[in-house]
Every structure is written in C-alpha cells, then in structure tokens.
Design a protein that fits this description.
This protein is α/β, with parallel strands linked by helices and 209 residues long. It is 22% helix and 27% strand. The chain has a four-stranded parallel sheet with strand order 2-1-3-4, sandwiched between helices. It has a four-stranded antiparallel sheet with strand order 5-6-7-13. The longest helix is centred in the N-terminal third of the chain and has 10 residues.
C-alpha cells in the first residue's frame, strides 16, 4: 500500500512573503496531495507556513497555541517524493508514450499519472482526434491534475503558453456550446473557455499499478 502523505487530511495556511514558491503554487501542492487550505487562523488549522514579514496571522496562531508553525523548507519536506518530478523509466522504453514523430520524447511522473513533455494547440472540439498522435492512454488532464502540473511547472520541461485545457466542464455558455476550465500557467488563475477556442494542451496518462 502507498504511504500516506504527511499533507493528506491536514489543513494549511500561508502567511508572509514566500520565497521558495508563489502562494498559488504552495496551495496547489497542498490540494494536490490531499490537504486543505484554510482562509484564516482557527482551531481547525493544523499548520501555518510562515514566510518573510509574517504579520497578524502568526501572532494569532501563537496565541491559539494549537497550530504548528513551520517554515517553507519544513513544508517542502512534508511534500511526498512522488510530487517531485522524476523521469519515468517506463516512458523511456515505450515509443507510444509521446508523439510518434519524436522518439526522444519522455514522459514525466507526477503522483499517480505521467505528463507528456510535448504539447499541442487545440480546441476541445477537436481534441479527441489530435490525441491519437500521442498513442494509447493519453488524455486531457482533469482540473486537479492541471493544478498539480502548475505547481510543478518550473521543475519539468516548462510551459510555453498561458492557458492550458483541462477536461473539467464549466457548463454551457449563453450562445450555446460547452465550456471547459483552464489554468493560466503564468499566474495560476482559472478561466473558462468555449470548446471551439484553440489553447494549449499537454496530455497525461494514469500510471498502471
């Protein structure tokens, strides 16, 4: 059985200026590993991660007495090793783990899935057809997978565009047609787009256990 993450089922709050990562990245790491981010200090808070020039939240946590106050580096030690990006040995041995026109391409392991190091510009209307070039098993990431990819974007092969598709529906628009959630990989913001819009997409594939 896989080891339970130290973050899983724990609650976190970040305060002060972070230097190891952005606030969005830190919160995405928590959520990607089964934890929860709170909006304020309370009896429900387990960990307060303190950056530079921490203010009133730190003082309130000290007075409460039940909150564990940790640094950014201590927080990073709690992140499971499989959240850090590593090359997949399986990906190196299979030609269908990446587009057929690039035999040197390798996938990247991230939690229980792997991310292709190639991306395409595509509309969600045409994504099924375009995914065929990547081989068996590759799909559009879910919103949760996309959040984890954003949190680790600096550790892998980089993202050249702004908005990246997820397969998570954002409902129907006023003019008809389905909308899907995206994440802006420049700042972590969420935005819904119509399926006919062409944006970047990086496929993922679940790792078989």
């Amino acid at each position: 059985m896989p080891t339970k993450s130290k973050i899983q089922d724990e609650t976190f709050l970040f305060t002060g200026t972070l230097t190891e990562f952005t606030r969005d990245e830190a919160e995405a790491l928590v959520e990607a590993n089964g934890g929860k981010v709170l909006s304020g200090v309370s009896a429900k808070l387990n960990y307060l991660v303190v950056g530079e020039d921490a203010g009133s939240k730190l003082e309130k946590a000290k007075k409460l007495g039940t909150v564990k106050i940790i640094t950014e580096k201590e927080f990073l030690k709690m992140v499971p090793k499989d959240t850090s990006i590593a090359k997949s040995p399986e990906a190196k041995s299979k030609k269908d783990t990446s587009p057929k026109n690039d035999e040197k391409s390798t996938a990247i392991v991230m939690g229980d899935f792997e991310v292709c190091d190639k991306e395409i510009i595509v509309s969600m209307e045409n994504v099924k057809k375009e995914l065929k070039q990547f081989g068996k098993g590759w799909v559009v990431p879910t919103n949760d997978q996309l959040k984890m990819m954003y949190a680790n974007r600096k550790l892998i092969n980089g993202y050249s565009k702004n908005f990246y598709w997820s397969c998570s529906s954002a409902g129907s628009g006023f003019g008809g047609g389905e909308m899907f959630w995206t994440i802006n990989f420049k700042n972590g913001n969420y935005k819904e787009f119509f399926e006919r819009v062409e944006l970047a997409m990086r496929p993922v594939r679940l790792i078989k256990k």
